Amino acid sequence: MMARNLILSLALFCGIASAFVPANVARVSTRADVSIYPDIPEDRVMEGAMPPVGYFDPWGLADMGTPETLAWFRAAELKHGRVCMAAVTGWLVNAAGIYLPGNIDYSGHSFASLGNDPMAAWAAVPDGGKAQMIAAIGFLEFHSELAKPHVMRGGVPGKINTMITPGLWDPVGFTKGMPEAQKAVQRTKELANGRLAMIAMMSFICADKIPGSVPFIP
Questions:
Q1: What does the DSSP 8-state code read for residue 103?
Q2: Span 144-187, pLDDT tens digits
Q3: Under a CB-based contact definition with an 8 Å cutoff, are residues 25 and 47 in contact?
């Protein structure tokens, strides 16, 4: 059991390894304004390379493959970061005992009946509900691959904007009319928050599966 949990933890860690790799892609410019990061050498100033860590790539992942590969890494990082930001929010809301009103199925089971243990609550979700959530995720994943141009062919990493899902990546229009310099700052903030959320989710799961593995979390 302990070995399986250790493998799970390592797999989660490897899943966020690319989170610290700046995407220096020739076809998709991800370079940041040098003036935003005065403490980082100019040749290392890229979106995602930020103080106090700066350029951080101890495993040399940025040297793997082609510029298209790095674009895929960046798209994957954004995707995982966004999922984990939503997951952390959901975890904390559930743990705080905040539930949706009404029932989760036609049998009369309320959302509150799932309890406030996030992992136990997921296990208690009816199979039909799990299937719907997985199908929704698959739908978004499938349509993100339909974007033209594709992220590995010059598309913008993290931008989900197809004929079927127009404007999905920014439905509220936060970036509409925003100066490019400000957009770069906001993209860096998203990367930073996503990285923190990936680490947080890994910590939550480890704390749940391996008691005592995470300080301050019983």
A1: B
A2: 787 788 888 888 887 776 666 666 667 777 778 889 888 888 88
A3: no
Please check if 4 is assigned to a binding site: no
Q: Is 189 annotated as a binding residue?
A: yes
* Exposure class string for 101-135: b at 16+ Cβ within 10 A, else e: eeebeeeeeebeebeeebeebeeebeeeeeeeeee
As given in the structure block, the two tokens for residue 139 are 């739908």
How many C-alpha atoms does 124 have within 13 Å on its Cβ side? 14
Contact partners, residue 70, CB within 8 Å, separation at least 6: 21, 23, 24, 25, 62
Q: Is 82 annotated as a binding residue?
A: yes
Was 180 annotated as part of a binding site?
A: no
Angle at 17 between CA 11 and CA 21, to 5 degrees: 165
State both tokens at 14. 């490897």
Using CA atoms, how far apart are residues 2 and 176, in angstroms rounded to an integer?
49
pLDDT tens by residue, 49-76:
777 777 777 887 777 778 788 888 888 9
Check the annotation: does 141 bind a ligand: no
- At 46 the three-state DSSP class reads strand
Write out the E strands in the chain.
Answer: none
- Work out the number of other CB atoms within 10 angstroms of the CB of residue 155: 18
Q: Is 69 exposed, middle or buried (0-12, 13-18, 19+ CB in 10 A)?
A: middle
What pTM does this model have? Answer: 0.74
Residue showing tokens 């197809």 = 162
Confirm or deny that 190 is annotated as ligand binding: yes
